[in-house]
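Example S7 (structure tokens).
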């Protein structure tokens, strides 16, 4: 089994964390449209919380958006890192099967891996979809090799779980997952340091863009939804968010 060099992992992280994470989250901000954000959020909640300023509303909207976006973007980066590591050690490859991220052989076993950021990633419907993807991939492999020893894995890049055996698949998190794809019991700790490569500089760049969007969106919000005294016109905001389209036909009452 080839040995994974720590310098190779460090180089991959430092080279790719800018385009695969920092740059993408800046683009995620730049592509936002105020009207689209306002349509997706709950004005009743902010009224109940006695939100009084445009900046409070805009920052709350942006933070909610960024929270989900950053997890998704960083999850994509970690998936690429996992595939890179596994390719170096076990000649792993990105799977062509639907819903499967990584395939590799280790100790005579064919592993099919779906990679998620953390252990609490989906609802029951999403888990059922993952299990069905595993079944489909199993059938595909067994058509070529009836005697293949196959194990399905839900790999989570962080977290821990006491019972990884989920009957139809294994759920390996954190240290267990990184060891599975690398053979290195300490890899989960080795990758944390290079994650901070130029982090201060990159986050300063992000904060400049964030501040500009807060200012721009706050001005636009005031122009659209504040009265002449600067107070939020909640009726106008809820009408924009939830009012029916003008050309929508009225609901007919049943006789």
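Recovered sequence:
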């Amino acid at each position: 089994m080839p040995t994974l060099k720590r310098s190779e992992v460090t180089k991959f992280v430092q080279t790719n964390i800018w385009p695969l994470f920092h740059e993408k989250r800046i683009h995620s901000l730049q592509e936002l449209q105020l009207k689209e954000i306002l349509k997706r959020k709950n004005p009743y909640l902010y009224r109940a919380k006695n939100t009084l300023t445009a900046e409070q509303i805009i920052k709350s909207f942006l933070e909610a958006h960024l929270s989900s976006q950053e997890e998704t973007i960083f999850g994509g980066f970690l998936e690429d890192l996992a595939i890179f590591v596994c390719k170096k050690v076990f000649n792993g490859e990105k799977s062509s099967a639907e819903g499967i991220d990584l395939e590799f052989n280790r100790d005579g076993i064919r592993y099919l891996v779906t990679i998620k950021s953390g252990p609490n990633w989906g609802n029951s419907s999403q888990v059922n979809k993952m299990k069905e993807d595993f079944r489909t991939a199993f059938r595909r492999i067994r058509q070529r090799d009836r005697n293949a020893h196959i194990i399905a894995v839900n790999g989570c890049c962080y977290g821990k779980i006491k019972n990884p055996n989920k009957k139809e698949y294994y759920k390996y998190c954190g240290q267990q997952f990184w060891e599975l794809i690398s053979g290195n019991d300490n890899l989960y700790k080795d990758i944390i340091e290079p994650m901070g490569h130029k982090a201060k500089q990159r986050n300063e760049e992000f904060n400049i863009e964030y501040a500009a969007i807060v200012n721009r969106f706050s001005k636009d919000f005031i122009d659209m939804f504040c009265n002449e005294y600067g107070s939020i016109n909640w009726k106008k905001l809820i009408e924009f968010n939830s009012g029916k389209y003008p050309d929508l036909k009225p609901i007919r009452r049943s006789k």
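Notes on this example. The radius of gyration is 24 Å.
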